[in-house]
What does this fold into?
Amino acid sequence: MEISIIGPGAVGTLLGGLLRMKGHGVTLLGRRPAAPPGRNFRIILPSQWLLVEGVQEKDQADHAEKPDAFLFTLGRHHLHAFRRPDFLHLIGKGDAPVVMFNCDSTEPERLAVPAERLRFGLTLMHAVKLQDGEVELPTASPAIIAERSPVIDNCIKQLGGFGFQFMAVDDATPYMDSFFITQLLYLPVAMCNLTLPVFLASPEGRELALSILREGFLTMERLGRPLARLPMMDPRDLAARIEKKPASFESGRDRPDRSYNSVLQSYLRGKPTEAAQLNRKAVEMASATGLHLAWNWRVFQKAGRVASLGFYRDPAELLKALV
It folds into this structure.
């Protein structure tokens, strides 16, 4: 199949490279000059590394082909910057499915995505792209959830050979809401220049994480939005473990970990983060129901501090700054 991936960041490049390894034609579309035809790059998996050849890279404004599927792996802030005419011109008038991964569920309506073509999806993993020409998957058991589509199901299932778990579901919204709550932790973890396991190895990190998660649960409950259990990175499982087995996180401080979340990668590269589309979104959603999310709001207010003064030394310093 021919697959166009909009969002050539870490996740988009990773998925595109692996799909190319399975014999599909892949084009990565972004807002940058086209690269030489058939550029090569390296993918580092937990158990092997792969040299990918033949992936095309083009500017999305110059894309005229009609692929069999569109995969949107843009960060929330980048997707929000899309203008409707540009989006509709990009996907054209065919019947190719449009899969939008890890997005705000209100964006497709704003962009007027045809309902018969729209599919929501989730990528439950951390992919790291800190240098050009190389992307790493540090997640040992990555998972992808997508709403059913014969075209998408057939190609994503092929990633099982690389260790991916795939779930085809009728409605991805409850899974998206669960993952949204998990993502609320991305900002405080990134502000300390840590990965989640190291952040949770400290009592202060666990206290802050549990407070943020509880606010997310309360918001979804007030909105009447049920949560589906995720095969990994599930927020309710994490909250239960923090409450019942806090000592089980202690070993995380001594284990090497390269699972940098997307917000931390943005900080390290000096680029805009998704904070305004995650923690702030949660605050806005809660406010509409009369709730005040004190912890998410305080974390969001401190986000600019990292860009101007540097990272917090540890979760204890961050917690002290928030109280």
